[in-house]
Amino acid sequence: MSSVIVQERLVSALIEALGADAVIQEGDALAYFSNDVYRGGAAPQAVVRPASVEALQEAVRICSVAGVAMVPRGGGASYTDAYILPEGGHVLFDTGALDAIVIDEQSAVVTVEAGVTWMALKTALDAKGLRTPFWGPFSGIAATVGGSVSQNTLSHGSTAHGISAQSVLSMDVVLASGEVLSTSASAAMRFYGPDLTGLFTGDCGIFGIKARIRLPLLPTLPHFETLSFAFESFADYHAASRKAAMARLDDSHFGLDLALSQGQIGRQDGMGARLKIAAEVLRKAPDKMKGIAQLVRMAMAGENPMRAGAYMCHFIIEGFDAEEAAHKAKILRRMLSGLGREIANSIPTFVHSVPFAPLFNVLGPGGERWVPIHGVLAHDRAVGFDAAYQAMIAVRKTDMDRLGVWTGTMFSPVGATGFLYEVALYWPDDRTAYHRTVLGGDYLAQQPHFAANEEARAYADDLKRAIIALMQEHGAGHFQLGRAYPYRQRLSPQAISLLGAVKAELDPQGLMNPGALGF
Ligand SMILES: Cc1cc2nc3c(=O)[nH]c(=O)nc-3n(C[C@H](O)[C@H](O)[C@H](O)COP(=O)(O)OP(=O)(O)OC[C@H]3O[C@@H](n4cnc5c(N)ncnc54)[C@H](O)[C@@H]3O)c2cc1C
Predict the structure, then answer these.
(1) Which of 47, 90, 132, 153 is the pocket-test mutation for ligand 1 (most atoms within 8 Å of CB)?
(2) What is the CATH number of domain 223-357?
(3) Which amino acid residue places its CA nearest to atom 44 of ligand 1?
């Protein structure tokens, strides 16, 4: 039987099971779905968008019988070839219509379907004065709970509560057979015997497609303080972030070097954004007079916080009442004195007001292409890595300048023991179907545009690989592994054999996101 007939039968079966609206085959849409934020791959033969867990199970069964690869995609906001199958011909599972949220206040648990975005979850929980411990990446306007849990994610709530995986109680996962596996036998606890939930976090979908995820609930703390500090050296910045991460006084904090601060983040400082911040600062201030005082401070600081030092660190601190938030801020100030100097707090105030900003940052401030590369370093390796990285960039500077390639850096704590060093890499190049779909024609018409630039693109890809290799030399670990970061190579033979056996048990035909994580 020809492959065209096989494909037609598969698509007909999917349409019959899910309805025609839930099966996408149209060329432009397939082009969009074959790109992540970084780059494109081969097209899927179809995209399915099941609207219920039962429909998801049925679509998985149909693909399994046909022996066709299945690749899950949440919000598509990743950049590690994680949902891109280089050889194509797969069925892509868009989880966007799996969007139910069930809040059980009595049990302090929220159950979400995998395609719920962090922004939708926050909106639903805000209305009840509740939150999850980790409550989303900066990309939460698009990023889903299922996608984040499948590749490990940090940001909002991470200093206080850790990464996405640490906030999951249990999950229901649709296996390659179409059956549903629940990862905990208890509704109230995760650690009931071996941690099966943990096995599925960070798996990039190779063990199955997450359908439902249960997360614990906490009360929202209504009072907050935002603080910013500038540092003259990376060593001082790192020492401050390490101290703060160990003390866990803040809900989250992040750092920026000067290049990133002025470029990517600085551009949020347009007039429209300022008015939006002003409205949000006032809306969120429990004490309106304090809110007005904060606006005045931000207006007087103007753009200075963007260029106050070589490195800047921004903290968001929360409390049950104003005194608690102010007290924590006071301790943090004392802790960091001698390392950095306090500067205007416009940036964390902006982030607190607009935690899930539109995805304008998928292009650089001058319309360049963008890809972040990160490594999580042990504290005793952070300063050494920074020196090695700066030396590497110095050697490459002439070529980078010639090609218009540049970098900025962002930092976050990963618990008390890890330091996330993230390089944002920019190069002049044409946009892809991803950028055109996500940003839209009206926005892009206002932005600078570059022609396709194969030389700069190849250089950026080579630099990306070199940065990952350098991070590996310094013992770094990574989130968002996809197909970009080494994983299997870092495992012992015993661990490879165990994970291989798990994969063979859950997905005997090897159809679930084949190649991700090296499996
Ligand atoms: C502007 C911007 C800001 C960002 N900020 C942050 C940040 O603050 N912190 C951070 O950690 N990352 C950040 N990211 C990276 C990324 O957005 C996040 O890691 C996010 O968690 C990706 O979620 P997603 O739903 O888009 O996943 P996708 O990109 O759709 O998928 C990611 C991986 O998960 C798998 N997957 C998706 N859904 C499922 C499912 N239901 N079952 C099984 N596997 C599944 C996919 O196959 C893929 O391997 C940012 C990205 C952008 C563009």
Answers:
(1) 153
(2) 3.30.70.3450
(3) 205
Give the closest residue to 359 by CA, choosing from 137, 115, 145, 151: 137
What does pTM read for this prediction?
0.94
Model pLDDT, residue 303: 59
Answer yes or no: is the C-beta of 482 below 6 A from any ligand 1 atom: yes
Query: What average pLDDT values come out for the chain (519 residues) when binned by 10 residues?
Result: 74 96 95 97 96 98 97 98 95 98 98 98 98 98 98 97 97 98 93 96 98 98 96 97 97 94 63 61 64 63 68 97 97 95 92 93 95 98 98 98 97 97 98 97 94 98 98 98 96 97 98 97
CA 308, CA 304: separation in Å to the nearest integer? 6
Q: Does the Cβ of 33 fall within 6 Å of ligand 1? A: no
According to CATH, the topology of domain 97-219 is 3.30.465
CA of 45 to the centre of ligand 1 (A): 22
Q: Does 205 contact ligand 1 (Cβ within 6 A)?
A: yes
**What's residue 300's pLDDT?**
61
Instruction: Say what the alpha-carbon torsion angle 277, 75, 405, 395 is, to the nearest 10 degrees.
Output: 110
Helices (H) and strands (E) in the chain, counts: 17, 18
Domain boundaries of the chain, sorted by first residue: 3-96, 97-219, 223-357, 360-473
Neighbour tally for 398: CB within 10 Å: 9
- In CATH terms, the fold of domain 3-96 is 3.30.43
